[in-house]
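Subject: sequence -> structure tokens, single chain

Hey, anyone have a minute? Need the predicted structure for the following. Not urgent.
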Amino acid sequence: MSDNRLSDDRLPGRLPTVLAAVALAAFGLALAAAVVAWIHYGTAVFFQILAAGLAACF
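Reply:
Had a minute. Here:
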């Protein structure tokens, strides 16, 4: 009987770690962009931009 600790349904190697790092970097970039927009445009305009973006989606 072989001792195969990795099943076939798991991703091999470091791919899950790399994917998690890329997702975290994308989230951090989006958060930084939101903070910069808030500082640049102010609170009222920032929320108006968010509201307009959400309205465009639906």
